[in-house]
Amino acid sequence: xxxxxxxxxxxxxxxxxxxxxxxxxxxxxxxxxxxxxxxxxxxxxxxxxxxxxxxxxxxxxxxxxxxxxxxxxxxxxxxxxxxxxxxxxxxxxxxxxxxxxxxxxxxxxxxxxxxxxxxxxxxxxxxxxxxxxxxxxxxxxxxxxxxxxxxxxxxxxxxxxxxxxxxxxxxxxxxxxxxxxxxxxxxxxxxxxxxxxxxxxxxxxxxxxxxxxxxxxxxxxxxxxxxxxxxxxxxxxxxxxxxxxxxxxxxxxxxxxxxxxxxxxxxxxxxxxxxxxxxxxxxxxxxxxxxxxxx
Length: 295
What we know:
This protein is α+β, with helices and mostly antiparallel strands. 37% of the residues lie in helices and 26% in strands.
């Protein structure tokens, strides 16, 4: 069984200990046992609709279509948020009662379309952006990317402000293969491509004046499998979790953010009138898990 599904079942078992949960989503005559049951998910959605209508609207309109059954060719699959290992479900359950917290925040990246962040909240003192990961580190990643990022990646690699490098192998006019490293550490489990996209989105928003310049906190919410009990696949899942944390901690994201802000200003001509230091000096990055998530 794939590691991501093993984690789904482990989370299901952990939750069942605390509260009996009916599993097994049935669609098109097939049962998906690592998902909430149809009835339980319907109750979950109804509760969201009635008690957290802003979240319901955001997840309904979000790019991931988290609340809908998904079609792929002739196949139909359960809604993403019905998965026990859903990152969206994790952050929703953790933050749904936090006043002012928004889900599915979209930010233009200038370089590569839209960055979809899992959470956002703005206070008088700061803006907090949240990316949530649960089962994703245990899914095989594709290192083939569109070449629209190539110029930025080469700029990052050439900068002496960050130890992040992007080793590019051009495939054709549209595609390239990229290997990310931080110093001597290769990045395998941590999603560096997506993180760069998110930092582009945050930087673009501040350079375009979409937010008042203030403290910028980026929170990376990574589900910690060590906080639940399970046996199958435990050693391998723990190893990948530790590897993801180590790769994440090897990166100076404040320095990387500064390179990205500078790129947007000097190469893309975005926010030239903005004080770069005022934006970048206010940036901080924090890795946390489901036990210590805070804003």
